[in-house]
């Protein structure tokens, strides 16, 4: 037998065996792949998807505003005389919306010129907040009505309509649009409370036993970002009602937009 044949047999004999896949190695690869997919989903849900959903909601809101603008103009409401001798239009107060029923649009110039989010009845996550937008509390008063017009919305995910509540400045306009016109409120203060402090929803926020005859607006959301530990609460006071026949109010004038909270 030649030496070359013997050497060839030795090479075959000493060739390494291929390692076989084990259950542990396959499981490890599957878990790694699943982890990557979860991270990609989180990134989509909290950032990329939010940008897309928010823009979509703004486009839907703009379409609603255009539809109302093109509809027959309601008659002017009566004028009322204020204590200081000036006159303003009596607000046309909308009916309290049923669960998931569309009530109006939220316009806040500080949040950007294109900010136009829908307002709906109810504050359940599955019914309103996750799918529709801003929700009106069950016992809330309505825009222009004496008492507290109180709403809830997300700061993160699902279009995050209240993402920038902490960026509001004193005097900023918070405008609610309905088919009859625009209700302008002015931002006054911000605070952080425990979820159990429901007195923020009282007719006079934090003072349920007091009656002032004033009209307030309250916007609530979870805080800090990505947490349910507290609530961020923004308060405002009523300024005026502008009927649709008068055209959009000056309170909708553009201001320097706030940077989004991440």
The structure class reads alpha+beta
Cα-atom Rg, whole angstroms? Answer: 28 Å
Write out the CATH superfamily name: Sortase
Q: In this structure, how is the largest beta sheet organized?
A: 8 strands, mixed, barrel
Which fold name corresponds to the CATH topology?
Sortase, Chain: A
The overall number of domains is 1
How far apart the termini lie comes to 78 Å
Note the run of SSEs as H and E.
HHEEEEHEEEEEE
Instruction: Name the strands of the widest sheet in spatial order.
Output: 3-4-5-6-9-10-8-7
- Overall average residue pLDDT: 88
* Level-2 CATH architecture: Beta Barrel
Beta-strand proportion: 25-35%
Number of helices: 3
- The CATH class is identified as Mainly Beta
Count the beta strands: 10
Helix content estimate: 10-25%
Query: Low-confidence spans: pLDDT under 50, at least 5 residues?
Result: 1-8
Given the C-alpha coordinates, what overall shape results? globular
Question: Strands, helices and their partners?
Answer:
Blueprint: H1 3-13, H2 23-70, E1 79-81, E2 87-89, E3 102-107, E4 117-121, H3 125-129, E5 134-136, E6 147-152, E7 173-178, E8 181-193, E9 215-223, E10 230-243
Parallel strand pairs: 4-5, 6-9
Antiparallel strand pairs: 1-2, 3-4, 3-7, 5-6, 7-8, 8-10, 9-10
